[in-house]
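Input record (one chain):
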Amino acid sequence: MTLSITDIQHINALAHKHFKNNEEIVAETGHALTNIDAVIRGVYVDDLADQWKDDADITLAEYNAIRSRYKPGKLHRDTEFMIARDMLIRPETVLAIAHSRFSNAHTHPMPKAVKAKPEKPQTMRRLSSADLDEAHKLERFGWPVAEIAGRLEIPVEAAAQALRLMRNRWGYPDILEDVNTRYGAK
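The corresponding structure, as predicted from the sequence alone:
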């Protein structure tokens, strides 16, 4: 039997105000133990079965609200069941939205096709031994390869190759020749 909102409020009052255990609440209300347990744990949503919003009708505002509000855990106002009760969106859908596994026409519209222009090969500036010293120093200080490449104003692949060769104990002249020829330095 589906519980009404007044049944749910009555069960919560018995559990939280009058401190009755589940068996006492079953005896007093006559409802099933599984339903009472679900209500007390805050996961009962069977009463809303005919009110769920269709997944295709979920708007971007609702999507963003769920993403910012959802928090994992139990017994607080931002679980998937509480959000489902407030927004009339199925708990499974709330979880899918929270974990980036949901999309519809409103939340993720199809991008318009753009004709891509063929990329011109990018020529990078010639590396010098001072650049290798700088890259080595930055890597020792824990800089990521992308930031080292940005600091030296060279492509990330070139910086990664230079650092890889340094780790493999290549000499500076060999590293400079390899990276400058491989990445088309001016």
